[in-house]
Amino acid sequence: MNVSTFDNNLILKPLRMIALITIFAGVSALIFEVKYFADFSVGLYFSRLIATTIGFIVLTLTYSKYGEKHAVLFIHILILSITTSFAIIIYLIPNTLFMNSHLLALTIFTTALFLSWDTKNQIIVAIYYNIIFATSILYNDNTIYFLPNVFSTVLFVLLISVLSVSATAINSRLREKLTESTQNAREIFENSIEGIFRISEFGELVSANNTFYSTIDELNIKLNNNKNFPSILLGKNNIKNIILEVNNNGFIKDRIIEIKRDDNEIMFISLNLRPSIVNKKSNIKYYDGSILDVTKRIKTELTQIETLLKLQDAKQKQEKKSQEALELKDSKIQLLAKINHELKTPINSISIFLDLIETNAMKNEEELKNFASSAKKSTELMLDTLNKYLDFTKIEAGKLELENELFNFREKIEESTSLLLPFAELKNITLSSGVAEDVPNLFFGDGNHYKQIILNLCNNALKFTDYGSVRISVTKGRSLDDKFEVITEVSDTGRGISEEKISSLFAPYKQINSKLDSKFGSGLGLLICKELTKLLGGTITVKSKINEGTTFSFNSFFELHENSDL
C-alpha cells in the first residue's frame, strides 16, 4: 500500500522518530568529528549544525497543523539535509568515503524501514543520494576514486543504488501483499455474520468484532467499564464454570442461550467457545468464541413445534371422537337389541295369555283374573320401556320440553310411593317418604317430570336392594326471588356401587354393558334422571358404599303459588 494513499497522520510518529535520531546523531557528530578532524572543523561544524537544526525544525513543525498536512514534504527535506551533510563531509574528507557512504546507506535504509515507503519515494531518495554523492566525487581529485576512473566509480555507485532500490522494491511488494492479506483477514473478521470475541481466563473481554458489539446493542446489554464479558450471554452459568467446561470438554458448540431483554422480549443466541493461546509473558490463557442471534430461527422452530403439537392434539381428539362415535354406534345397536328383547318378553307373555283366554284354557274365574293381571303387568312393562326410550330420544334430540302447571307437591310424592309400594312389598322392603314441614304444597312447574325422576330412582333402589328399606326425603333449599329450591334424596340399604363405576354411572349406554344390570332393564333410567334434573335447574349426585347402600340427591327449582300452604 503506497504512502500516498495513507493518511498523513500515519507517518507523523515515524517522522518524529527520524527527526530525533537526526538531532541526536548531529549533536554526537559535532562533538566527535570537530575534535578528530580539526583541519576541517568549520565546514564539518556548519554541515552538521545545519542538518541538526533542520531536524529540530522538522520535529517542531510536526506538532503543527501545517506539519501534519505536509508530513511527506518534511520527510524529503529531512532526508535531503542528511544526505547533503554526508556529501559535504565526503567532499572535505575523501578518506571517509566508505564510512560515510555506509552511514548514509544505513540512514536511508532505516528511514525506509520506519516509513514502510513505496518504490517511487525510494527511487527519489536514491536519486538524492546518487546526485549528491556523484557531485562530491566530481568536485574532488582523483584520489577519491576507488576504481580506475570516474566513470567506473559513478557506474559502480549507480549499480549499487539500482540493486538497493530493486531489493527495496521487492521487499515493498512483499509488504504490500502481507498488508493486503492482513487487511482481508481483518475485513472478514469485522464483517462476519457472527459476533467474534476473545476473552481471558478471568472473563475479561480482550477483543471483539463489530458484529459482536452490534449483537450486544440489539440485546440491550451494556458493557461494564472494566470490559468484563457480559455474564448474561452465558445463560445460568458464570464465567468460571464455562471456562472449566471448555477446559474439560475442549469446546462449547452451538449452545442456545435464552435472554430476556429489558423490554421483556425473549431473544436467543448461539454460543461457541474454545481454547485459543497462552500469553508467554503474562502466562494468561485466552479463549476464542462467537455469538449469533438465532432468535428468528428458534422462534420459528418453536412455532413449528407448537403447530405440530396442535395438529397431533387435534388428530388425537379426532381419533377419540371417531372411536367414541363407533362405541356410541355399537352401544346404540346394543341398546336397540336390548329394547327389542325387553319388548318381546311382555309381548310374548300377552300373546300367550290371550291365547289361553281365547281357548278357554283357564280352570276358573280366579285363574282368568290372574291371566288378565299378568297381561296388564306385561303391558305396563312394555309401555315403561317404550316411554323411557322415547324420553331418551327426545333428550338426545333436545326436544324434551318442560310444562309449567300448578301441582300439589306432596301428592306427587304419594303417587310415586303408591305405584312403587306393590313392588316393595313383593320384595319385603320398607318404602317410606318424608317431606319437611317448611316445604310448600303448591308449586308452578313440571310435576310429572319431577315424579318421573322419583320413580326412576326408586325403581333402581328397589331393584338393587334385597333387604332393608328405601326412603324418599325432601327438604327446603334456597329461596331465590320467586324460585323455591327443593332438595330430594332417595336412599337405600342395597348392594352399593363401586367407586370406579360411579364416574360413568350417568354416561349414556354405559349401564347396558354390565351383566348385573342387564337383568333389570335398559339402563336409561339414570341418564334420563340426570337430564330431567338439568331441565328442572338442578344437578344430581350420588354417594355409595359397597354392601351398605346408596343415596341419590338432586335439587330442583319451582315457582311458588300465592296459596302454597293449601
Fold and architecture overview:
With 566 residues, the protein is an alpha+beta fold. The protein has four domains: 188 residues, no CATH class; 99 residues, PAS domain (Beta-Lactamase); 88 residues, Helix Hairpins (Orthogonal Bundle), CATH 1.10.287; 160 residues, Heat Shock Protein 90 (2-Layer Sandwich), CATH 3.30.565.10. 57% of the residues lie in helices and 17% in strands.
Features:
single chain, 566 residues, Beta-Lactamase, 12 strands, 17% strand
Compute the separation of the termini in Å: 118 Å
Helix/strand order, N-terminal first? HHHHHHHEEHHEEEHHEHEEHEEHHEE
Percent of residues in helical segments? 55-70%
Low-confidence stretches: 1-7, 511-521
Total beta strand runs: 12
What structural class do you assign from the helix and strand content?
alpha+beta
Oligomer: single chain
Radius of gyration: 57 Å
Share of β-strand residues: 15-25%
What kind of sheet is the major sheet? 7 strands, mixed
How many separate helices?
15
Give the total of domains. Answer: 4
- Shape, per Cα inertia axes: rod-shaped
